Amino acid sequence: MINAIGGSSNLAIFQKHLGSLTPSNEPENPVLERSSSLKGDSAEFDTKRLEIEAFSQGIKGANEFIGALQSADVALKKMGKEGENLAWIHQSLQDPLMDSSTQEALKEQLQESQEKISSLAQNSSFMGKKLFDRELVNEVGGERFSLSLQDPSSLGEESMSYIEGKRVEISQTLSKVSEAISKGNSTPNPNNYNFEEFDASAFMKLF
User: Fold this and answer.
1) Residue 108 neighbours by CB under 8 Å, 6+ apart
2) Neighbouring C-beta atoms of residue 89, cutoff 10 Å
3) Is 134 helix (H, G, I), strand (E, B) or coil?
4) In DSSP terms, which residues pair with 145 in a beta bridge?
5) Measuring CA to CA, which residue among 94, 103, 78 is closest to residue 157?
6) 64 Cβ partners below 8 Å, 6+ apart?
7) Rounded to an integer, what distance in angstroms lies between the CA atom of residue 43 and that of residue 62?
8) Considering only CA atoms, which of 3, 21, 9 is closest in space to residue 190?
9) Collapsing DSSP states into helix, strand and coil, what is residue 152?
């Protein structure tokens, strides 16, 4: 993400070389405008039931966000086995011919699987940040990414489909974040310009 150019001396040098090339109908810094509009969105997220866990902007925050998503995926993978058990038990309990003793045994297994999933969710964290019953949020290159994670143990027979769906969503989000980071790294940095060999057309591409 491009940082706003600071310092009156740098601006004076740019203005000297730009002359009449300075655009008049475009926003002075569209990157900052997009960032400001995103700040307004956070109020909407704060009204949701899940607690917001926001990561800092920049590469450090992006790396932490990626680490949190990967840790959540590992936890969901572990939950998957218990999720399969829950789905099987719920289906088995629909059998009208099942005797009461078998039903009780299955209900005990059901509770055990739910408790294991809940324990995994409650103990899953990354760098001290809880991962479940949270909305994980990060901004990369002016683009906002978020992922909500609910404790699957409360979803009953839908636990497994939720776990599988979230793992797919995590994979897709990681891919998008990686792409956003790559775009940010390929963006020219105005601080690296050689002012003696200033290229006005290249500078204009920054805006």
Assistant:
1) none
2) 21
3) strand
4) 138
5) 94
6) 55, 56, 126, 127, 138
7) 21
8) 3
9) helix
Domains detected in the chain:
44-185 (3.30.1120.180)
- Cβ contacts of 151 within 8 Å, gap of 6 or more: 117, 118, 121, 122, 132, 133
φ and ψ of 157, to 5 deg: -70, -10
Count the residues in the chain: 207
List phi, psi (to 5°) of 31. Answer: -65, -45
- Report the alpha-carbon distance of residue 86 to residue 58 in Å, rounded: 40
Strand-pair partners of 130: 125
Decide if 148 contacts 68 (C-beta within 8 A): no
8 Å CB contact between 42 and 135: no
Query: Two tokens at 54?
Result: 């926001």
Paired with 148 in beta bridges are 135
pLDDT tens string, the chain, 207 residues long: the values are 434 434 444 444 444 443 433 344 434 333 323 333 333 333 333 334 667 777 777 778 888 999 999 999 999 999 998 999 888 999 999 999 999 999 999 999 999 999 999 999 999 999 988 999 999 999 988 889 999 999 999 888 889 999 999 999 999 999 999 998 888 764 444 444 343 443 445 434 433
Contacts of 126 (CB under 8 A, 6+ apart): 64, 67, 68, 71, 72
Name the token pair of 111.
């509770």
- Which helix or strand (DSSP H or E) is residue 178 part of? helix 159-185
Q: What is the 3-state secondary structure (H, E, C) of 26-42?
A: CCCCHHHHHHHHHHHHH
